[in-house]
Amino acid sequence: MKIGMGEFGKLSNSLDRNRGDDGDKGSCFPRSDAADLGNGASFIPGCVTLARHLGRKVQFRQPCLNQCCWFWQLADGSRIYHYEEMAHKKLKTLNDGVCQSCGNDFISGGTMTPEQARTHQQKGAVPDT
């Protein structure tokens, strides 16, 4: 039987006795990190895990099926974009660097400031609250 990182994270979190009411705060492997891995993320940025460990809210957004359009929205409004090399190469060559599904043009990973996130056009992104 093959166990993925999402399942490993869930097991680690349960052995950590699901600290915090949400399974994130104080946990060595936050429940939300395990959920993100289970939903297809190939990595979790360290600052995302640390923020969750400290009890800060971080949301993993998947506006379309393209992994280069997925991002973690931090409490301050900044975003950390997921990067997947093959998806990036495909978008870069076929669509001039813009995702046809959600309109995202920030496909090469990295961090977007809260100011950039407020003005960024991406159809599938949920507005800041």
Structure description:
With 129 residues, this protein is α+β, with helices and mostly antiparallel strands. 33% of the residues lie in helices and 9% in strands. It contains five helices and four strands. It has helices at residues 5-15, 31-38, 46-53, 85-94, 114-119, and strands spanning 59-61, 71-73, 79-81, 110-112. A four-stranded antiparallel β-sheet has the order 1-2-3-4. It is globular, with a radius of gyration of 15 Å. The chain starts with a helix and ends in a 10-residue tail after the last helix.
Instruction: Outline the biggest β-sheet.
Output: 4 strands, antiparallel
- In angstroms, what is the radius of gyration? 15 Å
Specify the number of helices: 5
What average pLDDT do the residues reach?
Answer: 85
Count of strand segments: 4
Assembly level: single chain
The residue ranges in which pLDDT falls below 50 over 5 or more consecutive positions are none
Annotation keywords:
single chain, 129 residues, alpha+beta, 5 helices, globular
Quick overview:
This protein has helices at residues 5-15, 31-38, 46-53, 85-94, 114-119, and strands at 59-61, 71-73, 79-81, 110-112. The protein has 129 residues and is of the alpha+beta class.
